Amino acid sequence: MDIVDRSFDSEQDYIRSCVQKSRKKENKLIPTGYCYNCNEKIPPGKLYCDSFCKDDHEDRQRSR
Q1: Which of 15, 21, 52, 57 could share a disulfide with 37, CB 3.0–4.6 Å?
Q2: What are phi and psi of 21, to 5 degrees?
């Protein structure tokens, strides 16, 4: 393995690490009393009003 291969591997490790950190931040939603998808008022402690809104919001976040 030469220096170019090691450099490439190091770069790939760094990119994987950044992607993992980004995904972890994405999942840390804080309940606000409003649905993160449709902005309807919801009970305290909830993130979404129903499973459709949850799935729709997560799909849109993944496509970004």
Answers
A1: 57
A2: -65, -40
Q: What is the pLDDT of residues 10-35, one digit of tens each?
A: 999 888 888 877 766 556 889 999 99
**Of the candidates 21, 48, 19, 18, which has an alpha carbon nearest to the alpha carbon of residue 33?**
48
3, amino acid identity: I
DSSP of the chain: --HHHHHHHHHHHHHHHHHHHHHHHHT-----SB-TTT--B--TT-S-SSHHHHHHHHHHHHT-
Tokens standing for residue 12:
């790939």
- pLDDT score of 13: 87
